[in-house]
Specification:
Blueprint lengths: L1 H32 L13 E3 L4 E6 L5 E6 L2 E6 L5 E6 L5 E9 L4 E17 L1 H4 L10 H5 L3 E9 L13 E8 L9 H14 L3 E7 L18 H9 L9 H26 L10 E5 L1 E2 L10 E11 L8 E5 L2 E2 L1 E6 L2 E6 L6 E5 L7 E11 L5 E2 L7 E3 L4 E3 L2 E10 L18 H7 L9 E5 L8 H19 L6 E4 L15 H11 L6 E4 L15 H15 L12 E7 L4 E6 L5 E3 L7 E4 L6 E2 L1 E5 L2 E5 L8 E4 L10 E3 L8 E2 L3
Parallel strand pairs: 1-7, 7-10, 7-24, 8-10, 24-25, 25-26
Antiparallel strand pairs: 2-5, 3-4, 3-6, 6-7, 8-9, 11-23, 12-20, 13-19, 13-23, 14-18, 14-21, 15-20, 16-17, 16-19, 21-22, 27-28, 28-33, 29-35, 30-31, 30-34, 32-33, 34-36
Helix pairs in contact: 4-10, 8-9
Amino acid sequence: MEYLKNLKSLKLIKKRKQLSVLLCCILFANYVNASLKLPSILSENMVVQQGKPIHIWGWADAGQKVTVNFLNKMYSTITDKKGKWNVFLASAKAGNGGDMTISTTDEKIELKNILVGEVWVCSGQSNMEFDLNNFKTFYANEVRNSANDNIRFATVENTFDNKERENTSLRINWTSVNPQTVLKSSATAYFFARKLYERLHVPIGLVISSWGGTPAESWMDSNAIKEFKNYASVYDKSIKKIDLSKLNEIKAENNRQFRQKLSVAAAEFKNYTAINYDDSQWESTDLPGNWESKGHPDFDGIAAYRIEFKISKEDAGKEATLHLPAVDDIDSTYINGVFLGSQTVWNELRTYKIPANVLVEGKNCLTIWVEDDQGGGGLNSDAPNFFIETPSTKIPLKGNAKLKLLLPLLSTLPGVNLSGIQNSPVVLFNGMIAPLLPLTIRGVIWYQGEANADRYVEYRKLFPAMITNWRKRWQQGNFPFLFVQLASFNPNENEPEVSDWAFLREAQAMTRYLPNTGMAVTVDVGDKNDIHPKQKKEVGERLAANAFKIVYGYKNEIAAGPTLNKTIINKNNIAIQYNNIGSGLVVKGDTLHSFTIAGADKKFYPAIATLSGNTVVVSSDKVTHPVYVRYAWASSPLDANLYNKEGFPAEPFRTDK
C-alpha cells in the first residue's frame, strides 16, 4: 500500500511539473510573439516630465490600435506601416502619477508606480559616469541619509553603433535612491538631483547616459559632424563600413598582426637602451608632455624615448632613485641598458631604484618604452616629478629628448582605434542618445572635455555645435544645457604655462553665448594627481544653482562666481573689475593667489594681488609696464582663492587673447 501511495504521489508531481513546463512555454511563446513593445526607458518606477505634453511611444503590429491610460485619461492612436506608434499625453502636475496601461486588442502592458516631476539627461565622460560607490567613504553620511523615493534614476548601457538605434538597453532600470541603490548612481547627477529636490520638492528623474574617456565628437550625429571634415571622413569611410557583428573577429586579426610586429620592435628596442646608441635620426622633442601635444595627435601604439643626462665622478657607481611622472599607459624603463622596472597604471607616478654600478661618470642615457592604446600617450606634464636623486644631488630631466614612434596600433580601418571604438565620431550618439530623443525632458547636465583638451581650439566650435545638434534633434526647443568647466588636474608648469586644460576651460566658457546655457566652475575642487576628483557634491550643487536661475525662476539669485568685467591699466599695476560679485568679493585665506602679470612681451610673472573693495589690483616688480593679466590660468590652479560671498569661485580668465 505504501508503494502504491508513493507511486500516486510521484505521478501527481510529474503531472504538476508537466503543467508548469507547459505554462512556462505558453508564457515564453506569448513574450516572444508579443508585438506590443515599449522602449527600455519607459518602464515601471519612471519619472515623466511635468508641465509638458508627455511623449509615450513604442511598437506593435502595423495598423493596430494602441490605447494609453494615464491619470484617468485615455489616448488612442494607430500604428504606422512599420508598426511604430506615438501618443502625447496631456501635461501633468508634479506628484504621484500612479500606474499607466498601454494596450491593443489582445495585449496589455502595465507600468506601475510612476511619478511626475523634473527629468534631466546626465551625460559626458567619466566624471559624470563615476558612481557614488567610488566615493562612499568620503560621502558616508550622505549615503547613509540618501533614502528618497522622489529621486529616481536610470542608467543607459554603454553602447556604440554605426547607425542610429531606436532602442537601447538599460544597465540600471528606473529605481529610487536609498543607501544601497544610490551607490550605483552618478555621483555628480545625484548631488544635482538632491539639491533640486531640497528646494523644489517635486520628483526628480535622472537619465544617466555617459561613457568615460570619450570625446565630444562621439556624441554628435552624422549630420552635425559634417562641419568637421576630419571626423566626417572617418565616420563615412571607416565607421559606417564596420560589420559590428564581426568586430571581435576583426580585433583578433588585428591583434595577431600587431603581436607579430611587436616581437620585431621589441628586439630592436634592446639596441636603443645602450649609452652610445646613435639616435641622431630620431625626432627631437622635449619632455615631459604627451606626444599628442608634441606633433602626434592621432598616434596610438608604442614609442621610445631617449634622454641623456650627466653624472658626476662623486655619484658614479652609486645607488640612486629615478622619479618619473605618470606614463600613459605602460612604461618599461632602462638606464644604460639596465632594466629598472615597469608599471601599468596610467595615472600613477613612477619611482625606480637605480642599482649600484649602473650610473657612470659623464654621459648616461634613460630609455623608456611606452605603450598606449587610446587617448593621451607618453609622459605626463609634471616636471617637478621628473628627476634623478643621487646621494649628493637632484638632477632635473626636463628638457631635450629624442622620440621614435616604433609601432602604431594596427587597424584595417583608417582613423579607427578598434580597442577604443567608442571614441570614434557619432557612435555614442547612435547608441546612447538617439534612443532617448523621443523622451520628454527638462534639460541636460554635461561633464566632459578632458578627452578634447589637446584640441581646445577646435572645441570652441565643436562643443556649441554638439549642443545645437542635440536641441535640434530633440525637438523640444532650446532646452537648458548646463555643463561643468574642467576641474583642476595635472601638476602646473612654471609660468608662462601653455596649459591645454586652461585653454579648454576658456573654450567651455565661450560656449555660453548659446541661450539657456550655464557653467559650473570647479577649479577649486579638483585634484592635481587624480582626474576623477572626489568632491562631486560641489559640482552637482553648482549645476543646480544654474538650474534655479536659468530654469526655475530664481532669476535674481547669484548662481556662479565673479567673472571678468574689465581691466584698467595703470602705470605699474592693473586694476581688475568683476561682474557677478553678489554680496561682494572675498579671499579664502590671507592673501590672493593665482594671478600672473605680463608686459607687451607676454612673459608672465606671479603677481602680488590685493583686494580693495570689489576691485583686485595686481602688480609685479618684474613688470614695470603691465599690459596683460591672467587668473587661475593653469592646469591645476588649486591655490586660486577669490570668491564671492555666496561661495562661488571666480572664473579663470586671461586678457592676452
